[in-house]
Amino acid sequence: MTDERGLAGKIALTAEAEGALVAVSNGDARVALNALELAADAAPPDPKGPAVIGLPDIREAMQRRSLLYDRAGDQHYDTISAFIKSVRGSDPDAALYWLMRMIDAGEDPMFIARRIVILAGEDIGLADPQALVIASAAQQATHLIGFPEGYFPLAEATVYLALAPKSDSLKRGLGELQKDLAETRADPVPLHLRNAPTPLMSKLGYGKDYKYAHDYEDHVAPDTSYLPESLKGRRYYEPTDLGAEAKLKMRLEDLRRSVRGKDRAPTGGTSGSRPASG
Helix, strand or coil for residue 52? Predict the structure, then answer.
């Protein structure tokens, strides 16, 4: 190296060190340069010429891989993306690999924990409600014990989420909700759903014809809508046939049939026997 800019002319790489540097950088010049600078800073100066950097120097530089893993750069986003897609794709082996890659590179463990909690809600949802419990517990455990032991709750949650049945029904439903909130008028709360703590409010129709659900068979009031009139009949949550959501789907279908059942009579008094408030 004869160029006087940067490290040129100041260091010399052995063949083994050069091969290791090429291998560990995976073709990323930025990673290679960062490792080379770390090794050069630690290499003792040689008054007779360039400091010689050998294989042990490169290995020592790579002990601090967190300095080579830019948390704001492409590696950060690409690796977490690979992790998320592996969990979503139900591949626990790949998910564990990318998890360990992030940990080994010095990623913030709480960032990983937060992503695991998000995964539980976004990609598994009610197909396995226990997933969110385990993910949240992993986040709390990691916060409590720190690293390196924090790897275990993160790994446990990763495997559980990867093997859990998947559902994005809540995500799709919330998307439809956001669309309706943005594109439809904000209708007032229907009168029968309003609280009526004063005689004046009752006179104005607040709570009128409200059907107290617990007065009816199965505790479901028939022929009742709880949405604004302009959105009556709109459906946002459509469960899948996977995991625990399959039972929720059957329950929801029964409920929707019950609400339409106009011949269902009160079983414990009349709907008018309950206060309109609450």
Answer: strand
Residue 116: what residue type? I
- The two three-digit tokens of residue 254, written as one number: 């029964």
pLDDT digits (tens, 9 = 90+) for 72-110: 556 778 889 999 999 999 999 999 999 998 888 878 889
Q: Which of 163, 197, 226 is the last residue of a domain?
A: 163
Residues 45 and 112 in one domain: no
More confident: 210 or 26? 210
**Predicted model pTM:** 0.66
Domain of residue 53 covers 11-68
| CATH number for the domain harbouring residue 212 | 1.10.3710.10
Residue 153 sits in the same domain as residue 184? no
Bond into 148 cis (ω within 30) = yes
Share of the chain above pLDDT 90, in %: 25
Phi, psi of 51 (to 5 degrees): -70, 130
